[in-house]
Design a protein that fits this description.
118 residues; single chain; 12 strands; two-stranded antiparallel ribbon; 6-stranded antiparallel beta sheet; globular; mainly beta; 2 domains
Length: 118
């Protein structure tokens, strides 16, 4: 899987309300979020602030009230794209071998996505 925890991604599919946010000036911008968790076996990612679902919770004790909890649900990897750090647009991911290490790079600008550690 090419997307890792901590990457900034953008939603590609869904309703217009899910994909875009209107700022104070009235300009539409893509909704972005950070990847919180990756599920490689299911091919899904959990993104902060995206794909919110409401869960109805029953009262468990005699004095407790039932409530509606809003939480994020996992999204399929094919429905998100990583943000290019240089141009700030959605991009595809490629791999380069630098100093014997396999690193990810943005195909849009050629910018490395992984840090070149020692």
């Amino acid at each position: 899987m090419k997307i890792k925890t901590g990457d900034t991604v953008v939603l590609l599919t869904g309703d217009q309300d899910d994909k875009f946010v209107v700022d104070k000036k009235g300009k539409k911008t893509r909704k972005t979020g950070k990847v919180v968790k990756v599920f490689p076996d299911k091919n899904q990612v959990l993104v902060e602030g995206m794909n919110k679902v409401k869960k109805h919770q029953r009262p468990t004790q005699q004095n407790e009230k039932g409530q509606i909890i809003e939480a994020e649900a996992p999204i399929n990897v094919s429905n998100v794209a990583i943000i290019d750090p240089k141009t700030n647009v959605p991009t595809k991911i490629g791999y380069k071998i630098v100093n014997g290490k396999k690193l990810r790079f943005a195909k849009e600008s050629g910018e490395l996505l992984d840090k070149l550690g020692k």
